[in-house]
Each structure stands twice: as C-alpha cells, then as structure tokens.
Amino acid sequence: MHFFSQSFQYDHPWSHVVIGMWRKYPNPKCTHVVSVDVVDRSVDPQTGIIRTERILGCKQKAPRWIVKLFGGSEDAFVREICFVDPATQHASITSVNLSLSQFASCYEVVRYTPSSHNRTTFTQTAEIQARMALWRSAADGLEKWLVQRFEQNAQLGKTAFTDVLRALWEERHGRPVLAA
User: Fold this and answer.
1) Could you give the CA distance from residue 44 to residue 64 in angstroms, rounded to a whole number?
2) How far apart are CA 17 and CA 13, in angstroms?
3) DSSP secondary structure of 37-80
4) Tens digit of pLDDT for each residue in 114-126?
5) In a 3-state reduction of DSSP, which class is residue 131?
6) pTM of this prediction?
C-alpha cells in the first residue's frame, strides 16, 4: 500500500471554498474528469448536514500495457460522497474508484476547515493499493505509478480549484483577487 498526502491554505473563507467545491468540474485544467452525475442529495433535518453522492467519469491516459493486462479502458468511474456541515463549518469528501477495483483501489479523503476568517485549510490523503498478492513486485510498481498519477492529478486539481475560487471572487466582488 502506498500513501499520498498534502495540506495547504486557500486565501478564501470557508463558505466561498464550499461554493467553489461544487463548481470545480468541468474544468479546462482537469480534462481527465469528463462527467459529474449527482446520484443522491439529502439534508439531515436534525443536524442540517448536507450529504451528496456523485459519480465522476474520468478518462485516464493509462499505459497500454495496463489497459491490455487488465482488460479495461481509459474510461473510469469514481464514487464520491460529500458531507457539508454549515453549523461547524466542516466539509469532507471521500472517494473510491469503481473501475478496475478488483485490481487496485484508491481511497481518497479531502477536508476543508476554516483556519481564520478569510482562510481555509485543505487536507487530502489517499491510500492506493494494488490487489495482486502473487505478483508483489508488479503490484508495488503499479502502486508507485498510481501514486505518481494521483499526485499529478492532485496538483492539476489544486491549480484548477484556485482558478475556480478566483473566478467566484471576481464574480461576487467585481474585481480581481489581490495577491496575498
């Protein structure tokens, strides 16, 4: 099993970041995400926590040998479940791959929490595991490749989400965001 994690600050208030969370896709910087379908959305009447379940359709540029070996395609699907608690100002997203999960799994957790009046902390972790016990060295190589791919997509996601937040700010305030 291999791990990935990162944490950083967005120079935007939590409420602004959560609005941006729903506008992240489609995005020209994250072209691997080609569709987002809301499967379910509900609000807990006691807590006010919003739960949203979505399926993300992705096109990954997997090496041909992986596609041939596992009999898949470049089309992949991810199940995402989001919880937004307006009372405590916490948002969390968990996601897991649905495609080729019999060969490898990627379990991701993202959290957005306020760190100050106008800043939001972003934390992201991922556990990636190949399910090929007989071929441990091949599994280790696959896990390393998947972590590299995840890290590349995470960096694209950070850049893309920063652009979304900037556009939201400009839409709301009618002027560019000032650099911090």
Assistant:
1) 45
2) 6
3) EEEEEEE-TTT--EEEEEEEEEE----HHHHHHHT--SEEEEEE
4) 998 899 999 999 9
5) coil
6) 0.83
